Amino acid sequence: MWRLVGAIAISLLAADVQAETVEVRSGVHPTFTRLVLHMPERVGFRMLQDGSDHRLTLERDGMEFRLNSIFDRIGKERLAAVAPLRTGSGLRLELACQCRVDASWAGTAMLVLDIREDPNAELPERATGDTPDRALSKAPSFAVPLTPKGSGLVATARDLVAAGFQFGSYSGETVSGLATASESSPNKVAKVDTISMRHTLLREISRATAQNLLTPRRHQSEPTPQSGAKGAPDRPQSEEATSGSETPSETSLSQANMATTTAMNLPGAMHSTAQTPDGGPCLKAEYLDVAAWNDDTEFSVSIGRLRSEMSGEFDKTDPETALRLARTFVFFGFGAEARQALMLIEGEDTVAARVVRAMAEIVDNGSASAPGVLDGQAACDTNASFWSALAQDPLPPALAINQNAMQRTLGELPAHLRDHLGPVLARRLLAAGHRKAADRILRRLNRTPEAASDEERLARAEAGLASGTEGASEADLDAVVAGNSNHAATALVHSIDTRLAAGRGIAEDMAELAGSYALEFRDEPVGKDLIRAYIAAIAGAGDFGRAFTEFERLTPDLDEAAVIGLNDVLMQLLERNAKDLTFIAQSIRFSPEDVPLLDTVVANTVAQRLLSLGFPDAASRFVDQPAEGRAGRDRRIIRAEIALSLGHPRNAEVALLGLQDDEANLLRAQAREMTGETDAARILFASAGRDKDARRTAIEAEDWAQVPGDTAPDIAELAAGLTDGAEPENPEAPLGSGRALLTESSVSRQRIKAMLSARPLADD
User: What is the 3-state secondary structure (H, E, C) of 372-437?
Assistant: First the structure.
């Protein structure tokens, strides 16, 4: 009977091995968890949701999913369980959060499943033992419990196979449940549903094979490749297969081409679980374990010993010794010497050698050549994260990093490397937007300000500027500039930018120093920033004529973005600080082609000052382009003021279309007054709260009825008299009527005389 079982297992396993295997890798990010399916090619797929269950169905049969390391890199906060579909090809995901699953293709054939938090998603119901239809199978049915050696491990596996025969489809029951049923009726295997048995055995052996719990083994009659030979599997045999204490039954079952292994038996298992977010492997920790590359031996002793061991028989360089020599040089901080040592073994292009070469570049230059072996490792939970972040300059802003691993690796470095590389990493992280990670690195350095290096001071200053603590940052920047080290130029750029952003002036000697550095470092990466800071510093010192002259001379050395930004700085400083004549001369000479490129707020302020100085035509070219937002609204107000200054009231009203606030109504009232629409002007003045202008407009229009009674008593009395249209008491009596008119005329003359006395007219 067991030979029949073995034969069936052999045939089914052979057929299963030929199925297409899909490696499934996982990674966790702050806002989502990612699964990456490495498909043979792109195929059609569908995502279906049923509460917390999400089903991925692939339009291709014969897919087997390798899921054994899914939860090695992620927790179960978002994904509770994952298993293959019972029918068809695909996966069933049980979520543990209010999340959604986004599926998309990446690369040529990588299917990416992102589990993202979604407040609108349905809250998942936790599966219980009473609801097997909602529970996912979290372990294969052939997952044998680990037992002490010699306690019948293979016999337990045999009982599981028998239980599978008896019950046909497992339908979600656990392994322990099957084992108990088998023990209660060990002999009830006569009535077998062979079709159900075939499908069940195929499914369970497939799962066990995918999780490396079962491996195909050659028949004893077939030749076995020798260990280390080409094509030989790099896998140790299990203890049960090589033990001399096997029972006859265990031996017979082992001859049925079944073998059991655990994850701990696999070569490199301790490293295979470390993955990058895209599913790739992380470098082994020993490749970058700098602390282990020297045993507190002095430099001369270590290097001398290794050099003496370099040449073996026939003066041939020993590759292993050369690699150790390169690693020792890296330990002591000699990158160029490490690369020279590796040149002795150029034919040995191993991963270890490539890693040391990249580390040597980092020690010397602060980064490594791209692309390199350290790229894409910043999220690994090993020392690879630290060196990967250093290798890339600049770091991609959206790159996932592992802060804990970086900080842990920094603490393990020798003190001299920690002091050298820590500030470099902090500045790299800060430039990429990882401010908290940079702060943690700087705190880990634990150095007093007096003992800090210039690069550490610069890193602390940049971190302070990012967090808004400019006072302490300025002191660090001044110290770095005074130190005249390689970082002084960068610190000077930050210092000039900080002073200008705070609206402070620049000392003349600082501007001259920036000019000297700009000439010295013109071919370095910091050269363009120095040119920009130099020109801005001249303007900040008040020498605008020279600033614009230098700007025209050095513009070819700058890219377009730097030119645009520098234009904004110069015009802003000119509007704020220049005297009237200097401002008028420089702003009028400003290139018309560059006006549309100015920042909207800067252009508005320049136009407003030109208008206030009586140059509406010059002001108009700074605001003739439309703009959005608050600055766009202010620009329309300025255009209306310019139109009124030029005597174009209709153009002013066009500029004000759609604006209904008091400022717009005031300008609109002035435009109506200029066109003779005094009644409309009076109403608009009143709506804008300009009562004095409203009264003046009513008096000019001789509309005395609209002059309010709360005005000055003499004007109010005159307005009341002029609006009194009462007829004489007896219009039939001419003498009485004439006497009344004379009296009213006398009163009116008295009112006008009083008003003129209170408000004398100007001499002209």
Answer: CCCCCCCCCCCCHHHHHHHHCCCCCCCCCCCHHHHHHHHHHCCHHHHHHHHHHHHHHHHHCCCHHH
